[in-house]
C-alpha cells in the first residue's frame, strides 16, 4: 500500500504531465506503468484509453474517468490541505 505522502507524490507527478485533449498519451503511459508495477494487467487500447484489470470474478468494480485537460499550464503546488494543478484541486485527508 502507498503512504499518504507517496499518494501525494503520485498525484503531483500525474498533474505535472501535460495532457490536453488529444495529447493524453504520456499520462496514459504513466498510469499503465504505475498499475503494472502494482499487479494490474494494464494496457492502452486502440483509442487511447487505459484499461487495467486485477483479479477476477465477483464483485466487479469499474472506474471511468477522463485524462485530458484544457490547454495551458498551471504550476502544480501544495497549499495546506490542497494540491493545485491543471487537473483541479484535490483534498488531502490526514489520518
Describe it for me?
Helix content is 26%, strand content 17%. It is α+β, with helices and mostly antiparallel strands and 95 residues long. It has one domain. The strands form 2 sheets. The chain has a 3-stranded antiparallel β-sheet, covered by helices on one side. Strands 1-2 form a two-stranded antiparallel sheet. A hairpin with a 5-residue loop joins strand 1 and strand 2 (50-53). The model has no long low-confidence stretch (mean pLDDT 87).
What's the structural blueprint in terms of helices and strands?
Elements: H1 4-15, H2 25-37, E1 41-44, E2 50-53, E3 77-79, E4 82-84, E5 90-91
Antiparallel strand pairs: 1-2, 3-4, 4-5
Question: How many H/I helices?
Answer: 2
Low-pLDDT sequence parts:
none
**How much of the residues is beta strand, in percent?**
15-25%
Rounded Rg: 14 Å
Q: Give the CA-based shape.
A: globular
* String of helices and strands: HHEEEEE
Fraction of residues in helices?
25-40%
Widest sheet, order of strands: 3-4-5
The overall pLDDT average reads 87
